[in-house]
Design goal:
314 residues; 7% strand; single chain; two-stranded antiparallel sheet; two-stranded parallel sheet
């Protein structure tokens, strides 16, 4: 930017005018900064969400391979933070595969809804020129257009929240995984070992082996949630049309996209650096977690479930 350039759009206009003459002055025809910024943000969000989709697909495949590799290794299942029923490392890992698949659907739906060009809506009320909005949408790679000029501006808050909400769902999957890793790698559990390259030590305690990456990923989930709440607050109670309040939504959106993209890459490192501690897992398979199985064995022999429940409970 230089003195005299009002914004990036005037910068582009001045460049074209200086290099190509009078035709450069026509670039702003039928446009407002309002619909230009909307278009810019939609293209930016779409590009980043497509990258995030690619990372989710790659990560779900890694979790699937992990699940297949360790599918028969026993592992205690927990409810209420207490041992409950037997499961396997494979089942545990596969749960994240399905979760990521759901996240893909949510992200894809967000892409479909933002993949409409608002260009030509100008300041939110259109212009009295025969603009070919479908043609410009096609040139920009959009799948369609937003038809109502007023809704182009009114939808901004909804679309921003849609995008961050989809991103938060991805982080919820990551958060569940890293929370498990943090618990199951403690000295009290030792169900898994983590590659030393992914751990940090302590400046005072020589024995410490901290899985900091998992802690940071957990914190990042709440940053994205905070951004969702922030944007929800900003866009609430605004009248129809453009409001300058929208300027404050850009930072939390951009930050959330960056967080999720980097978090998916960090999660990939963590799952690749995780190894089940088979001896500890087998030792944790204590008798009480087979109680339900024993009750169901009695049911299979014809005893009512309630009587079987009481018998095993005794």
């Amino acid at each position: 930017m230089e003195n005299g350039d009002e914004d990036v759009h005037t910068k582009i206009e001045n460049y074209l005018t200086n290099n190509f003459g009078e035709v450069g002055k026509k670039i702003h025809t039928g446009k407002s900064r309002n619909d230009q910024v909307l278009t810019d943000m939609k293209l930016f969000e779409k590009d980043n969400l497509l990258q995030i989709e690619k990372q989710i697909i790659e990560l779900s495949k890694i979790f699937k391979d992990f699940s297949d590799k360790y599918k028969t290794i026993p592992m205690p299942g927990y409810t209420h933070m207490q041992k409950a029923m037997p499961t396997t490392v494979g089942m545990w890992a596969k749960s994240f595969v399905e979760s990521f698949w759901d996240d893909l659907i949510i992200v894809n739906n967000a892409i479909k809804l933002i993949d409409k060009s608002p260009l030509g809506s100008a300041a939110g009320y259109g212009v009295n020129l025969p603009l070919d909005k479908k043609y410009t949408a096609k040139l920009l790679g959009f799948s369609g257009i937003q038809d109502n000029p007023n809704y182009c501006q009114n939808s901004k808050g909804k679309m921003d929240l849609l995008v961050i909400g989809a991103l938060h769902n991805v982080m919820l999957t990551i958060n569940k995984f890293v929370s498990d890793v943090l618990l199951f790698t403690t000295f009290e559990f030792e169900f898994f070992d983590v590659d030393k390259k992914l751990c940090t030590g302590s400046s005072i305690m020589p024995q410490k082996k901290n899985v900091d990456v998992a802690e940071l990923l957990k914190a990042k989930t709440h940053k994205v949630l905070g951004n969702f709440v922030q944007v929800a607050g900003i866009v609430s109670n605004l009248i129809s049309g453009y409001n300058r309040d929208f300027q404050e939504t850009k930072k939390p959106i951009i930050e959330s996209l960056e967080i999720v993209l980097s978090s998916l890459k960090a999660t990939k490192l963590l799952i690749n650096g995780l190894t089940p501690n088979v001896a500890k897992l087998k030792a944790a398979m204590t008798e009480e977690i087979y109680a339900t199985q024993k009750a169901l064995d009695l049911v299979a022999k014809g005893i009512s479930f309630r009587d079987a429940y009481k018998l095993i409970k005794k």
